[in-house]
Amino acid sequence: MIRKLRKLKPALFAAALTGLLAVTAYPAGVRAETAPTPPPTPETVCIQCHSSLPDRLGAPVALWKQSIHAENGISCNSCHGGDPKNAADAMNRSRGFLGAPKEENIPAFCGRCHVGVMKDYLASAHGKMLGKGGPHCVTCHSNHKVLKASLDLINEKTCTQCHTFERAAAIKAAMQQTEGYIVQIDRRIGALTAVGVDTETMGKALFAQRNRFHTLFHDQDVNRVKSESTQINAELGKIDKQLKGIEDQRAGRKVTGAIAVAVALVLAVLFHLLRKTYD
Ligand code: HEC
Ligand code: HEC
Ligand code: HEC
Ligand code: HEC
Ligand code: HEC
């Protein structure tokens, strides 16, 4: 009997080890996730000269450095044109320099790259009031310190300059739930991807719904936001269900792993005691 148990001992330890690995693999995988490195923004004559200028001419440099544009390699000349390599001729119109846009031209200025947003904006109640008291891109996003878009942009300070916060709050409320749902699903997909689950189809489905959702705001149409958000929530619900299936399956496996470890440990202790008694 003892001899048999003794032979079993390495097998027991192997079982215990496998169980332990199964339990710890999940958090280890999540920790292995790494952040992507942003592309470098090259130094230009625009940045060099303007950093040394005072007030309204120098201020844009420090503000822009904190922006999502700087992070993505969109530099002074990407927006203002000109020659970023030739200090003497940098701001020559013949080198494509555009200068600073006047208020009415700002949507077209930003819209060279953000075509869809510009179209939605121009068709909205805000766009129709451009140059007549309506807000434009810079009113809400600022000119140089443009940050990653979020619902925080809808706040009392910005939105009560011209009217009450009521309609702004209605749009924000309609969007907040869906935004939270998107963030939550994104995090769960990320956690599964990190442990090697194939999440490509779910990731693509989420990406499509997220893009659809982010085109809603500039219309300023509360009813459309509400009806579209309902449909988007339903689509997100499908991804949620799929995720839950995989998560439950993995949680089940974790419990089985934990039970295996517990059983193995009890058996090891028993074996140890038996040996002490009979040796
Ligand atoms: C050698 C210094 C120098 C360089 C290089 C330079 N700037 Fe300027 N910039 C100035 C000065 C001085 C002014 C203010 C006088 C003026 O408007 O000409 C100015 C004004 C501007 C303005 C405001 C124009 C307006 O209509 O108010 C913008 C925008 C601008 N620069 C962008 C750029 C960009 C983009 C580049 C690179 C392609 C650049 N600058 C390169 C010195 C410079
Ligand atoms: C995302 C596009 C964008 C980028 C990138 C950008 N600008 Fe501008 N800039 C604008 C817009 C739009 C205005 C006019 C906004 C306004 O009237 O408030 C402007 C205005 C200016 C002005 C005139 C400011 C004034 O008060 O008269 C200067 C000078 C200027 N930019 C310099 C720069 C420099 C230098 C850089 C790079 C460090 C830069 N900009 C990067 C969009 C941009
Ligand atoms: C009344 C305020 C306001 C105005 C005017 C405005 N935006 Fe926005 N913008 C927002 C808010 C709020 C969001 C965030 C919406 C969300 O989280 O879905 C946003 C999101 C964005 C985004 C990211 C989402 C996407 O669809 O790619 C971009 C890019 C953008 N705006 C560019 C612009 C441009 C360009 C203009 C001018 C043509 C403009 N915005 C005018 C408030 C504004
Ligand atoms: C030369 C092209 C170009 C111009 C002009 C430009 N942008 Fe952008 N913008 C980009 C790129 C590239 C990104 C980063 C990738 C992305 O998120 O789309 C970006 C990102 C943004 C974002 C964040 C989007 C998000 O998903 O969170 C906002 C908001 C934005 N830009 C607003 C503006 C505004 C306002 C202007 C005008 C003052 C402007 N942009 C002019 C190219 C441009
Ligand atoms: C510079 C002035 C100004 C600012 C700032 C401003 N708005 Fe407006 N807004 C207007 C004008 C003008 C109208 C059209 C007239 C009206 O309906 O009152 C309007 C209308 C609206 C409408 C009704 C649209 C419709 O079709 O009935 C909503 C919703 C709205 N704004 C939301 C916002 C939000 C959200 C913000 C802040 C992110 C904001 N506004 C900031 C000027 C502004």
Largest sheet: none
- Beta strand %: under 5%
SSE run? HHHHHHHHHHHHH
Tally of alpha and pi helices: 13
Give unreliable regions as ranges.
1-8, 10-35
How many beta-strand runs? 0
What bound compounds does this protein have?
Answer: heme C
Structure explained in plain terms:
There is one protein chain. This protein is mostly helical and 279 residues long. It has a domain at 1-37 and 150-279. Helices cover 67% and strands 0% of the residues. It contains 13 helices and no strands. The protein has helices at 2-31, 45-51, 55-65, 68-71, 76-80, 106-111, 115-123, 125-128, 137-141, 156-159, 166-194, 200-214, 222-278. Helix 11 (166-194) runs parallel beside helix 13 (222-278). The protein is elongated. The protein starts with a helix and ends with a helix. The model is unreliable at 1-8 and 10-35 (pLDDT under 50). Residues 44-46, 49-50, 53, 57, 76-77, 80, 82-84, 87, 90-91, 99-100 line the site of one heme C.
List strands and helices in order, with pairings.
Blueprint: H1 2-31, H2 45-51, H3 55-65, H4 68-71, H5 76-80, H6 106-111, H7 115-123, H8 125-128, H9 137-141, H10 156-159, H11 166-194, H12 200-214, H13 222-278
Helix pairs in contact: 1-13, 11-12, 11-13, 12-13
Bound molecules: heme C (5 copies).
Keyphrases for this structure?
279 residues, mainly alpha, 13 helices, 0% strand, elongated, disordered N terminus, binds heme C
Summarize the structure.
With 279 residues, this protein is mainly alpha-helical.
